[in-house]
Write a structure and sequence with these properties.
166 residues, mainly beta, Porin
């Protein structure tokens, strides 16, 4: 079943997500429920192929933890279209590398995520971002590197679509 929405890819998108787990429950490191932790992404979507399309982009994460947490990163992935026989659902696994800045120290970090998106219209999507991040800052602060799971909820907006060469 195809949607009446046409998205066409070859587009540049912007998304903003809030970590629901941290916002709703806090964590065991002194960050209470209500803690703001957002990820902003600028993502390029290539042209559609049979199964989907490649994506890549830049991301910025800011968390207002007991000490400030900032992560700059880049990611690459592949979006599968027509998931569950509905073009409005899309799944995107991706890998990323970034730099965590915490307490005056810069640390390299890897991440992986699975983004689940649902089209609301031709320019706006609901987005769920399941992310695992190598938290090298925790190694710096507490002596042990951990891999942290975060569940983000947000929206993605198509900024513009590039014209095709053909």
């Amino acid at each position: 079943m195809n949607s009446f929405f046409f998205y066409g890819q070859n587009a540049l998108n912007f998304s903003i997500h809030q970590d629901l787990k941290l916002f709703a429950f806090g964590d065991n490191l002194g960050n209470n429920a209500g803690t703001v932790n957002f990820v902003a992404r600028l993502k390029y979507e290539s042209n559609d192929k049979k199964l989907g399309y490649f994506i890549y982009g830049l991301e910025y994460e800011k968390a207002f933890l007991t000490s400030s947490y900032t992560r700059y990163g880049a990611f690459l992935g592949y979006t599968f279209i027509d998931v569950f026989g509905d073009y409005n659902f899309q799944l995107t696994p991706n890998l990323g590398i970034g730099n965590i800045h915490r307490e005056g120290t810069n640390l390299c970090s890897w991440s992986t995520s699975l983004q689940v998106e649902y089209f609301l219209n031709d320019t706006l999507k609901l987005s769920f971002l399941n992310q695992i991040t190598e938290r090298t800052d925790l190694g710096f602060l507490y002596g042990k590197v951990k891999y942290r799971y975060s569940f983000f909820f947000g929206i993605e907006i198509r900024l513009f679509k590039f014209k095709s060469k053909y």
